[in-house]
Amino acid sequence: MIALTEQERRLLDIIRPVADRLGMEVVRLRVSGGRRPHLQVMAEKAGGAPTDVEDCARLSRAMGPVLEEADPISEAYILEVSTPGIDRPLTRPGDFGRWVGHAVRIELARPIDGRRRFTGTIVSEGEDGAHIELDDETELVAGVHEMSRASLVLTDELIEAARAAGNLPPQPDEDDDLEGFEIDESEDTDEEETGDLQ
């Protein structure tokens, strides 16, 4: 689920070695259409270590020359590099195991009994996939390759877990030492326009 289309998979092959060299991992890569395509790369430090806007900027700067040389998108496009955020997408084997006990939303690529969308709590993750206790107390077992979308649900418990792991920026009502700092409500991101201008 990191990349869905053939174009996205080609881009991932180009970008992933750059991220590896910086000690980062690509969480999700998407290309959206329009007159000016938008290439969004979501990345984090290896192992899920706290990642900030400077990490995104370093990755963006390192990707620029490689993408320019490979020229995978012929027209001018916008490149955005961001962190996964607290209610992050779960796109790789092992992602669910890191967030056992937390709420998740899942959309399957193919329906089960006519149903594709599920909400529940992550119980475990094994070789057979993620085990999700659904709201009706039944269990869904599905591998990442069977999903078209999955993400954590923003809850108080998730926010506390992010705070404990050092992935939550200081909040204005929690810290008196924030004078001189700008508080940005959006997730960390670095965005630039790139590609061939015509």
Can I get a quick summary?
The chain has 198 residues and is α+β, with helices and mostly antiparallel strands. Helix content is 22%, strand content 34%.
Task: Give a structural overview.
22% of the residues lie in helices and 34% in strands. It folds into two domains: 6-85 and 183-194, GMP Synthetase, Chain A, domain 3, CATH 3.30.300; 96-162, Ribosome maturation factor RimP, C-terminal domain (SH3 type barrels), CATH 2.30.30.180. Strand 6 (129-134) and strand 7 (139-142) form a beta hairpin. It is α+β, with helices and mostly antiparallel strands and 198 residues long.
Q: What descriptors fit this protein?
A:
198 residues; alpha+beta; GMP Synthetase, Chain A, domain 3; SH3 type barrels; 2 domains; five-stranded antiparallel sheet; four-stranded mixed sheet; 22% helix
Reported by name, the CATH topology of the largest domain is GMP Synthetase, Chain A, domain 3
Largest sheet: 5 strands, antiparallel
When the domains are counted, the total is 2
Oligomeric category = single chain
Shape: globular
Q: State the total count of DSSP E strands.
A: 9
Distance between the termini: 32 Å
Query: Percent of residues in helical segments?
Result: 10-25%
Strand content: 25-35%
CATH architecture term of the largest domain: 2-Layer Sandwich
Helix-and-strand structural type: alpha+beta
Topology, element by element:
Layout: H1 6-21, E1 24-32, E2 38-45, H2 53-70, E3 77-82, E4 103-112, E5 115-126, E6 129-134, E7 139-142, E8 147-152, H3 156-164, E9 189-194
Parallel strand pairs: 2-3
Antiparallel strand pairs: 1-2, 3-9, 4-5, 4-8, 5-6, 6-7
